[in-house]
Amino acid sequence: MAMDPHRRRQERLDRLRGSKPAPKKDDDEFGPMGNGPPGRGANKLIFFVAAFIFIGVGYFGWEYVERYSAQFLSGANPSDLAQIQAGREIYYANCAYCHGDYLEGQEDWDLAYPTGNRPPVPLDATGPAPGHSDDLLFRIIKNGGQSVSPEGYRNTMPAYASLLEDWEIWAVVAFIEAQWPADIRRQRDALQNK
Ligand code: HEC
After folding, report:
1. Does residue 49 belong to any structural domain of this protein?
2. How many structural domains does the chain have?
3. Is the distance from the beta carbon of residue 142 to the nearest atom of ligand 1 less than 6 Å?
4. Which 3-state string (H, E, C) describes 121-164?
5. CATH number at residue 101
């Protein structure tokens, strides 16, 4: 940096008088670290705090948008990531302890139970669920298994009408269907609207 003429003149005067040179202006300007403008450390801290808040707001904002957008859906769309994500949370909070963490159901579900009390069936593609339309799956979950069972058969699949909103039930149906292979989902398309 070019030395400003005022200071050069001052230094010459100081030398003539034999006194110490005036403190360099630059030293004051650059602070105790001497490398960079003042307040660099503070800027870094502000940057990290801002980044942290930005990521936090982004993450929880996205969670909120997912749930919010899923609320307007009436019907299951197993390609809708927001609806699937909402359904995943509902599944693990309400269904996994009977139907399993991997939708695998419980042992011996496929034996004959003429009078009911069948163990929880798998909800993945190895079970009977892909054979039902979206609408039937919705009604089983909302009104319980008994509502679609013949007389004399005791179906212990509970009704969720008082626990889940309709959009939540559609979301869990979408989550379940999203676990099925694509070809099974395609075959099922013929079932819809029945
Ligand atoms: C208390 C245990 C239990 C819980 C909790 C439970 N289920 Fe079930 N569910 C069953 C049983 C048992 C059956 C099989 C009933 C039968 O066929 O007799 C069943 C059957 C079903 C079926 C019908 C499958 C078919 O193709 O026949 C669906 C769909 C289903 N459950 C979805 C759910 C969902 C979604 C949840 C959570 C919101 C849930 N279940 C929670 C026990 C449970």
Report:
1. no
2. 1
3. no
4. CCCCCCCCHHHCCHHHHHHHHHHCHHHHCCCCCECCCCCCCCCC
5. 1.10.760.10
Tell me, using a 6 A CB cutoff, whether residue 136 lines ligand 1. Answer: no
Q: Quick check: CB of 84 below 6 Å from ligand 1?
A: no
Q: Has residue 13 got a pLDDT over 90? A: no
The mean of the pLDDT values for the chain is: 86
For residue 34, pLDDT over 80 is answered with no
Residue 99: CB within 6 Å of ligand 1? yes
The verdict on residue 64 lying in a domain is: no
| In the predicted structure, residue 21 carries a pLDDT above the cut 70 | no
User: Quick one: which of 180, 178, 137 has its CA closest to 160?
Assistant: 137
pLDDT over threshold 70, residue 193? no
Distance 118 CA to ligand 1 centre (A): 10
Q: What is the pTM of this model?
A: 0.73
- The yes-or-no verdict on residue 33 having pLDDT over 90 is no
Top mutation candidate among 89, 98, 153 for ligand 1, by most atoms within 8 Å of CB: 98
Residue 36 lies in a domain: no
Question: Residues near 188 by Cβ (< 8 Å), separated by ≥ 6?
Answer: 130, 133, 177, 180
In a domain, 53, yes or no: no
84 lies in which domain range? 79-191
